[in-house]
Structure formats: C-alpha cells, structure tokens
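User: Predict 2Fe-2S ferredoxin-type domain-containing protein's structure from this.
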Amino acid sequence: MTTVTIEVNGKTVTADVKPRTHLADFLREQLLLTGTHIGCEHGVCGACTVEIDGEISRSCITFAVACDGAKVRTIESFDDDPLMARMRTAFSTSHALQCGYCTPGMLIAARDLVRRKAAEPDLDIRTEMSGNLCRCTGYAGIIEAIETVAAEAPAVPVLADGRWVGPAPGPGATTPPTAAASAATRAAPAPAKAPAVKTTPLAAPSRPIKVEVGPVTVENGETRFTEGFALDHPRDAVWALMRDPEKVAGCMPGLTLDPPTADDRLTGRMEVKLGPISAGFSGEGAFARDDAAHRMEITGRGSDRKSGSRASGRVAYTLSDATGGTSAATRVDCVIAFTLQGPLAQFGRSDLVRDLVARIGEAFARNLDARLRAPDGAAVAPAELGGVSLVLGVLFGRIRRAVIQALGRGS
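Assistant:
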C-alpha cells in the first residue's frame, strides 16, 4: 500500500492505496464520488473524464498514486461553476443527453473546450469532442449545446490560483492575460518560470487495531452486539473527533453523511456490497451527545430502492481512559443494534454478523487512528463497505478455523 494525499474537490484526502489502483476506482469506491463513470476502462470513451491540476484527464487509465499532491475535480464539484451551469442548461435545452451515462465526462470536456478555444473562429467542435463517445444522441444535440455556450464568449480561462489554462502562454505563466489582451497573448507568449508546487505532509500509514466483538444476539428481529477497541491517543483528542457525526461518518466504511441540521437531524447514504448484492441505503437519523460522559448515540433508518431492502439501527459509544487514569490511550466501547428486511436480511444471521462486523470494526478503528494522526485539515478516505475482499476474508477465516479444529480433533 502507498499513502497519498490528494486534494479532491477542494478537500484534502489522505489514504492508503494499492500502486495499481486507478484514480477512477479510488474516486468511486473509496470516496464514493460516483458521478465519475467508468465505461471502456481503456481511456477511449471519455466517461471517466476529470480535471487534474486544471487539465482534463482519463481517470480510468491514471493511477491514483500518480496524483499524489495533485488537485482533482470531479463532476460533483461544478455545482456552483457559472460556465458549467450554462453548459448544463444548454445540454438540457438542446436535448444533448438521453441515458446520461456519458454526460458527466461530456460536460467536463465540453466546459474545458469552451474555456480554451471558444474565441477561435474556426473551432471544430466535432473534432475537439471526438474523444468523448455517446451511444444515444447521435451528437447533434451535444454539438448544438456547445456551440450555444461558445457563442456567448465566456471569460478568459483562469484558474483560482491565477494560472491560465490552455495553449500559450500555458500553465506556467505568472500573470494571466486579460480578456482584451488574450488574442495578442496567444500570438506572442512570454516564457515564465513555473510556480513552485506546494506539498502537503502525509499521514502515517494505517496500522492494525484489535477489535473485540461480544456475543451476537437476535431478539424480535433486532440483531445486537458489542464492540470494543483501544486507540493510542488521549481521550480528549479522540472525543473531539468522535463527538462530530460528520467526522465519525468520514471514518466509517461506506458511509456518506450530510451536515447535521439545526435540530440535530442527519441525512446520508450507506453503500453496501456483499457478495452478489449491492445496495445504497439512503435515509435519515438523529444523534444525542453527552460531552461530560464522553458518550454519543446515533440512530437512523433507510432503504435501498434497487434491492428493496430496508434497514434501521442505532449505535452508542462511550470513551474511557484505557490506562488507569492516564491520558495516553482511550478505550472505545460500542453497543450496536440493527434490523434488516429484504434480500440483505440473509447477512443478518448471527453466524455471519460476528465475522463481518469484526472486519468492518477493524477498518473503522484504523480510519479513526489514521485520522487522529493525520495533519490538521486532512481527511482520511474510508474503506469500501463490503466487496470481494471482505466476503473472502470472512470465508477464509471460517475455513482456517475449521481446519484448525479438525486437526485438533485428529491429534
């Protein structure tokens, strides 16, 4: 595993990734930014197009480790972008999308094209957009939409840090051209020294943390169990993190949480993938916090339209000193209860829950530890909830215990 720090949509993210993990997979599976679509996985169709340091790139053929220290923008970050707003409106007016699968990459590429070449009188949009494929529209509406936005003469393309994007003077220019001087600047670029790259300190690599799981009980359809683990951090530091529902969600595998409302209501989404079943639970919840007792309780419920599964649950955790009154380590004790209905209910059986929650709990504890050791302002990407590795890990663990028991009986 390699530790990388990437600024994604304006937020610094520190995570451990495998050297061969593609940026598209990292964005979708670890950061849950699923607006970046994966099509051909060969860099041909353009569905996975994102911005890297202000220039569009194919995220399906870009390694995540190659983006260490870079600034990445996905389609989710363009909500407040004026040029993208005009492009979205034009796409809708010109009927430039049908199934919508190519649309995120198409919009990012179209916006980049208009920013760089809208002023060119002989702009060939069909050629410039040939790197983005669409299987639905026949391209006529797409060309019309881009022509509409390009005809509005958008402002000269300048990044937030003052660098101009596109042909001469290029990204190394120290002073961006003005709209009036853009034509002259294109004709006579002035060389300039490239700006220094600002680096961000990395968090320490994640380390294993033992999680103790108590007996799993099922009563009236509700599955209940306890978890406990110790973190090598002072209780006040751990509580400062775990008293914030958003920060806790950032460490929980698969969970994305919106900012709490004034009445402490929560909304969010949990992505689950176990074996052949994949689900995304959207729902709402609430939390109650006791700072004096270092205790938090979070409740929630949600449903997945695709699988028809429904879930509700609650988790209560309490923090205590783990070393007899010193502040060197903190004990985290959790009580977790949940109900599952629908296809995913098969994973609610107590014989499977214990193994699954132990592995999920270990990922959560590692993320908490990594977040506490990360630089100020950095975020740690949560692991995916489920996946082949989680299910296979449970199965291999069961097989290993069965073999050990069999050998023990035979000796």
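The CA atoms of residues 2 and 327 lie 31 Å apart.
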